[in-house]
Amino acid sequence: MKIGVIGTVGKWSSEQLADEIERLTGFRFLVGMNELVISGNQGKISARGMDLTEFDALVIKKISEQYSHDLMDRLEILSSLERRGVRCFSTPSAIAIAANRLTCTLRLLEALRMMKTPPRFYQASSSEMYGKVVETPQTETTPFYPRSPYACAKVYSYWQTVNYREAYNLFACNGILFNHESPRRGETFVTRKITRAATRIKEGLQDKLYLGNLDAKRDWGFAGDYVEAMWLMLQQPHPDDYVVATGQTYSVRQFLDEVFGYLNLDWHQYVAIDPKYFRPTEVDLLLGNPAKAKKVLNWQPKVSFKELARMMTESDWQLARKERLLKEHGQ
Fold first, then answer.
1. Helical residues (DSSP H) of the chain, grouped into ranges
2. What pLDDT digit, counting tens, does each position of 114-163 carry?
3. Strand stretches in 286-330, DSSP E
4. How far is Cα 148 from Cα 87, in angstroms, rounded to an integer?
5. Structural domains present in the chain
6. For the chain, how big is the Rg over CA atoms in Å?
7. What's the rounded Cα separation, in Å, for the pair 280 and 157?
8. What is the DSSP code (8-state) at residue 277?
9. Is the dihedral of CA 43, 303, 122, 234 positive or negative?
C-alpha cells in the first residue's frame, strides 16, 4: 500500500493503517527523510522520498508498481517554503505552491490512468476551498469560493480528481476535510501555536503570544478521527466525495479560553495582536455538515472540541516541562 505520510494526518494514517495491512510504504514528498517521525509499527512501515515535481506520470507509474497498490492516498504535497513556515496564504510563495500542488495531483492521476489495475485513490481536499462561504453549513454541494493560492490549488486538484474518476472510471475520492488537529500539528498552525505558547508561558519560558484574527471560526476535529473517515471512503463499493467535519464551529478566542483556562491562566494578559498574521483575504467562518459521511460511511467524530484542546495542551505541557528542566540544569 502506498500513502502520503506528510503532516499530522499523514502520520496518523500511517500508524493506524499499519494495523490493517501487512506492510505499508510511505512516500514522503519534498522534505528531508530525517523529518519523518512515526512512533510504533516501524517494522511495517517503510519510507521513500519522492519529489513528484521532478517525475512525469510514466516514471511515477513505474515506481508505484514496484509495490503492492491497493490504495493510494494523496494526503499532502507541500513545498519546502511551506515546511519552513512561509505563509501558504500569502502571495510571495503563491507561484511555487500552485505549481507544486497542481502538477503533482495531475501526475498522480495520470499515473493511475496508465495502470492496468490502478489503486484506489484518495485526494485530501480542504474546507479552505469554501473560503468566502455562500451557505452555512457547507456540504458536498456547496459552491467553492477560494480565498488563497492554497485554496485555489485545492479546488483545481478536487476537480481533476472528479474529472479522472468520471473520464477513466478510476476509484478516486475527495475527502473535504475541515480543520483536523492533534498534538502532532505543526507549530505554525494556530491551534498548536496556542498550545505550545500557553504551556511555555505556564512554565516561565515565554512571555507573549502573537496572533491575528481571534474572531475567525473553524470546525476543528481530531486528526485520528478523520483518518478513520478517509479509510472508510476507500472501502466503499463506489467512489464519491465526502465532507469530514464535526458539525460544530468555534472561534480562536474560544480555543484560547479552553487552553489557557485548563492551565489556570488568563490569556488576555499574554496574547497580543500582530497585523502580520492577518490574511490578505480573510475566511471568517467554516462549518461542515458531515451528514453524508455519517449516513454512508457510518462514521462519527469521537473527540470533542474540549477534549481535543486538552489533549493538545497536555502533550505540549509535557514538552514545556522537559524544556524547563533542561534549561534549569544548563542544557
1. 7-18, 57-64, 80-83, 94-114, 149-168, 190-202, 223-233, 252-262, 291-296, 305-328
2. 888 888 889 989 999 999 999 999 999 999 999 988 889 899 999 999 99
3. none
4. 11
5. 2-182+220-244 (3.40.50.720), 190-218+250-282+305-328 (3.90.25.10)
6. 20
7. 23
8. G
9. positive
Residues 6+ away with beta carbon under 8 Å from 274: 210, 211, 212
**pTM, to two decimals:** 0.82
What's the CA gap between 118 and 110, in Å, rounded? 10
To which residue does cell 519534498 refer?
30
Q: Kind and range of the H or E element at 242? A: strand 241-244
Model confidence over 175-217: pLDDT tens digits?
A: 999 999 999 888 989 999 999 999 999 999 999 999 999 999 9
User: Distance (Å, rounded) from C-alpha 75 to C-alpha 14?
Assistant: 11
Cβ(67)–Cβ(24) below 8 Å: no
Q: How far apart are CA 296 and CA 233, in angstroms?
A: 9
Q: How far apart are CA 125 and CA 127, in angstroms?
A: 7
Cell (9 digits) for 281? 483575504
3-state class of 199 per DSSP? Answer: helix
Length of the chain: 331
Buried b (16+ CB within 10 A) or exposed e, 2-28: bbbbbbbbbbbbbbebbeeeeebbbbb
Whether the CB-CB separation of 288 and 141 falls below 8 Å is answered with no
How far apart, in whole angstroms, are the C-alpha atoms of residue 25 and residue 204? 42
- Give residues with Cβ within 8 angstroms of 195, minimum separation 6: 183, 259, 309, 312, 313, 315, 316
- Active-site positions read 126, 128, 150
> In which element (H, E) is residue 268 found?
none
